[in-house]
User: Fold this.
Amino acid sequence: MGAMIAATSQIVIANANDKSQSINSGRVKSGRAVYEQYCASCHGANAEGAPNWQERDAHGELPAPPHNAEGHTWRHSDADLYEMVNKGWRDPFNRTKQLTMPAFGGVLSPEQIRAVITYLKTFWTPEQTQFQLEESQGHSFPSEGQ
Ligand code: HEC
Assistant:
């Protein structure tokens, strides 16, 4: 197990020096199609977020945030982002218990989830991409490589 973790982080470090490798272009293309079909209606066509995404709605909940450089998606590791898309997500500060971000686990395949997250990475600055790559060390996508 220790050896496996070491091997994984080696791959991540290698990718850090070669952005074109960590942001696989085939995956970006299929991720974009997934995004446009399943995510753009809430998160915006260009990942700009819902209008007034920083203001709570009538239920005291936050609308869909941007995924671009203005948002905070880049602060989460691949493992956390995968979990949010797979199982859904609700900010702990929201007032109701319902999931404000729907779960896509039953709708999208694991590869579609990895692809759509990979597509979101194209909206980040090089610094954000680097930060997120480091966050993902030891916290990569589940079942990566299958
Ligand atoms: C019905 C509207 C809706 C759809 C469709 C939707 N989302 Fe969301 N999403 C939200 C809301 C609202 C939040 C904020 C949840 C919160 O903070 O409580 C969110 C949050 C997120 C977050 C967490 C962002 C962060 O920085 O905390 C990610 C990642 C995400 N969505 C990805 C996706 C992806 C990928 C898709 C398409 C497969 C998608 N969403 C489709 C409404 C939606």
About this structure: Confidence is low (pLDDT under 50) at residues 1-21. Residues 38-39, 41-43, 62-65, 71-73, 81, 84-85, 89-91, 94, 100-102, 104, 116 surround heme C (CB under 6 Å).
